[in-house]
Design goal:
By secondary structure, this protein is of the alpha+beta class. The protein folds into two domains: about 140 residues, Pnp Oxidase, Chain A; about 40 residues, no CATH class. Helices cover about 25% and strands about 25% of the residues. A seven-stranded antiparallel sheet has the order 2-1-5-6-7-4-3, covered by helices on one side. Helix 6 packs across helix 7. The longest helix has 9 residues.
Length: about 210
């Protein structure tokens, strides 16, 4: 890679000179505890992305999803819990949390351009009475990520507007990228045929393993 023609930013002063200073309303909008509007947002959100980093800086961003109202449990104004369901068992983000508790969360509501961002410190809990509030289709969470909130704030809609993410007319899920079964068969050592993978990823079959 030839980088000799790049102009690289290497200091906070250079970054500020390029981007400018945030206006006061933006600079001061972070708050340390949940308001009613935050609780309403978390109750309406079925999806979030959790960002973590290991002790040596290896990063991970993991999607989390459940029906709205069952993704997040509010323990108190400074503490929330996010359920973990059956997955691929890599647990990259959870291994990071065991080394470095700092997490960043971005909660989405379908169709909304703004998001709720939460930064805090996490711990892993294998069981607690509040797990009863996170039961989906008769299944309790495998574990929960309990986050002690350091700060939270709403993020504007510009990224979603630029991307057109919620505009169905822009959607083309398999137009440029192969379907999931083809990717798995070509790049992941499954030992399964393409026909078997197509059957595995068929929605009516794949859905059976979402909570069991």
């Amino acid at each position: 890679m030839h980088t000799d023609t790049w102009t690289e930013i290497s200091s906070a002063d250079e970054l500020t000179a390029l981007l400018g200073e945030p206006i006061q309303r933006v600079r001061d909008k972070a708050r340390p505890a949940l308001l009613d509007v935050d609780r309403d947002w978390l109750a309406a959100s079925p999806f979030c992305v959790m960002a973590t980093a290991s002790a040596d800086g290896r990063c991970d961003a993991s999607p989390k999803g459940d029906p709205a109202g069952q993704l997040v449990h509010v323990i108190d104004e400074r503490t929330i819990a996010i359920a973990e369901r059956p997955g691929n068992r890599r647990a990259d983000g959870y291994r990071n949390i065991l080394e470095n508790p700092h997490v960043g969360l971005d909660f989405l509501i379908p169709g909304r351009g703004d998001t709720l961002r939460v930064n805090g410190r996490a711990r892993l809990v294998s069981d607690a009475p509040f797990f009863d509030a996170l039961v989906v289709k008769g299944h309790r969470p495998i574990l929960a990520v309990v986050v002690d909130i350091d700060e939270l704030f709403f993020h504007c809609a510009k990224a979603f507007l630029r991307s057109g993410l919620w505009k169905p007319e822009t959607w083309d899920p398999e137009g440029r990228v192969s379907r999931r079964a083809v990717i798995a068969q070509k790049y992941e050592p499954t030992g399964m045929t393409l026909e078997q993978l197509d059957d595995y990823y068929r929605p009516e079959n794949y859905d059976k393993g979402l909570y069991a």
